[in-house]
Amino acid sequence: MISTLLLTVALFAQDKPTDIPKAQLPKAAECVVCSMNGAGHEEEKPAGGLMYRGKAFYFCNSKEIADFKKDPEAFIPLPLPRAMAKFDLVDLGGKVWNAEAFKDKVILVDFWATWCGPCKQVKPIVAEQAAKHRDLLVLSVSIDEKKADLDKFLAKEKFVGPVLHDTKQVWAAWRVRAIPMLFLVKNGQVIAQWTGVPDKKALASAVETALNAKPH
Questions:
Q1: Distance CA 10, CA 110 (A)
Q2: Are residues 99 and 137 located together in one domain of the fold?
Q3: Where are the alpha helices (DSSP H) in the chain?
Q4: Given pLDDT bands bounded at 50, 70 and 90, which one contains residue 41?
Q5: Confidence check: pLDDT of 213 > 60
Q6: Which pLDDT score, from 0 to 100, does residue 59 have?
Q7: Bridging pattern class, strands 82-83 and 55-59
Q8: How far is CA 152 from CA 7, 92, 114, 115, 157, in A?
């Protein structure tokens, strides 16, 4: 009993990724990097694996293994629900959006860019939810480097809610590794998130649940 407890403590105290021997790799597994970047695919034979904090992580190629070793915490999904990361931006209409502005609201935060093809697929999906639920607010956060690119895009495209230009790298604080990435926030708590184009039914269900849930 004591030896088992010591082993468990040792595993979770481990703060450095260690290689899993090739002979111990499973026949098929999901790549943690692809999953985090929204490029999830069916399980396949892993190129390698690492143990970190008592858990096994598998990868498609050696570059992903190297990236994970540099910053393993960046690839570990954060718990849900959780307090939202720092957010302090001004929308194009001049309104300040910070923690105070998120209070008592259900907000869908959409990180996107004008050059991102999949982001354009997400736009009508979130617009549909906003049209269906008047109490849902959509914040479209552009990570474009140049304001001119955003302005040119907005001259042709309309959005259902406020558009913000992320000039403070808020996306990094929110651990956005790939776009599009959506966060469903209720009263300052992230209760759901999606990387890539979300499943319409899953998104609709999460929004409806958030709006209909009774306050504690």
A1: 39
A2: yes
A3: 2-13, 32-36, 62-70, 99-102, 117-132, 147-154, 170-173, 200-212
A4: low
A5: yes
A6: 92
A7: unpaired
A8: 58, 13, 9, 12, 9
Can you give the length of the chain in residues?
216
pTM over 0.90: no
DSSP 7-45: HHHHHHH--S-EEPPGGGS-SSB-BHHHHHTT-----B-
Please tell me whether residues 96 and 44 are part of one structural domain: no
- Do 95 and 182 fall into the same domain? yes
Share of the chain above pLDDT 70, in %: 90
Beta 189-195 vs 82-83: how paired, if at all? antiparallel
Residue 18, domain extent: 2-75
Query: Which CATH number is 195's domain given?
Result: 3.40.30.10
In the sheet with 181-186, reading across from the earlier edge strand, the strands are 82-83, 189-195, 181-186, 106-112, 136-142, 163-165
Same domain, 124 and 25: no
Residue 32's pLDDT band (cuts 50, 70, 90): confident
pLDDT value at residue 14: 53
Which tokens in the block code for residue 81? 């629900």
Q: Which two tokens stand for residue 23?
A: 């002979």
Among residues 144, 155, 153, 139, the alpha carbon closest in space to that of 90 is found at 139
- Cβ(46)–Cβ(20) under 8 Å? no
* Domain count within the chain: 2
The 10s digit of each residue's pLDDT in 94-125 is: 999 999 999 999 999 999 999 999 999 999 99
